[in-house]
């Protein structure tokens, strides 16, 4: 059983991530000296990021799903909350998060933004997740490393 798993940015479904007017792919350094690829939001008013963990092998107990991201110093358009949804077996978590508040004192630093939690049992099934905001202000400056599922600490 794995303690945690991650879907990196390339493995996510990011609306318009293939259009360089809206997103760009950047190399970011790891602590090990290696690099990983992250998706940097340049400018959108329609934000939609989704993905899933297919039949993850998780230890029993409470797990959380987190967006691993950072907000650039010059980010804008995040004063309104964005929506999230997480489904797993019979569980659905949904709500809103204010990313501007989450990164208020930590611009340009990677953070884990909790999208929800669930109780893992032996019959687990897929975990699906969405982060979205349709319409409203244009947004820029979010950098996404990926989405992780891990035991709740």
Q: What characteristics describe this protein?
A:
153 residues; mainly beta; Jelly Rolls; ten-stranded antiparallel β-sheet; 10 strands; 62% strand
Short overview:
The chain is mostly beta strands and 153 residues long.
Report on this model:
- With 153 residues, the protein is mainly β.
- It has a single domain (5-151), classed as Galactose-binding domain-like (Jelly Rolls).
- 3% of the residues lie in helices and 62% in strands.
- It contains one helix and ten strands.
- Strands 1, 2, 3, 4, 5, 6, 7, 8, 9 and 10 form a ten-stranded antiparallel sheet that branches.
- What is the rounded distance between the termini? 17 Å
Number of strands: 10
* Percentage of residues assigned to helices: under 10%
CATH superfamily: Galactose-binding domain-like
In terms of DSSP E residues, the strand content is over 45%
Kindly name the structural category.
Answer: mainly beta
Integer count of domains: 1
CATH structural class: Mainly Beta
CATH architecture annotation: Sandwich
Form type: globular
| Spatial extent as radius of gyration | 15 Å
Number of helices in the DSSP assignment: 1
Pfam family, one: PP2
Organism: Prunus avium
Protein name: Protein PHLOEM PROTEIN 2-LIKE A1-like
GO molecular function, one term: carbohydrate binding
What is the secondary structure topology, with strand pairs?
Layout: E1 5-8, E2 13-14, E3 23-29, E4 35-41, E5 44-53, E6 61-76, E7 82-88, E8 91-97, H1 99-102, E9 111-120, E10 127-151
Antiparallel strand pairs: 1-10, 2-5, 3-4, 4-10, 5-10, 6-9, 6-10, 7-8, 7-10
